[in-house]
Specification:
The chain is mainly beta. The protein has strands at about 5-15, 20-30, 35-45, 45-55, 60-65. The strands form two sheets. A three-stranded antiparallel beta sheet has the order 3-4-5, with no helix packed on it. It has a two-stranded antiparallel sheet with strand order 1-2.
Amino acid sequence: MYQVVDEQHRGVATIPLLGSFPFDVALEEEEPWNYLVGVTAGLGGHWVLTLEGFFGTRDAALVTLDYRWGRRTP
């Protein structure tokens, strides 16, 4: 997977009991390329399970379970 990030975020955040404070954050990726592995499987007539793993300089995991209603096509 290829991801380019070049963002600047500025603003003021307010936290109850602590008050307001300004922030200024610059975001940029260290490495634009990352590995992605995944699988999708149908479980019965209406359920779909998706598993994805991201690894390299950005590690993450994604698991989704979906229910698809309606008429099933053969």
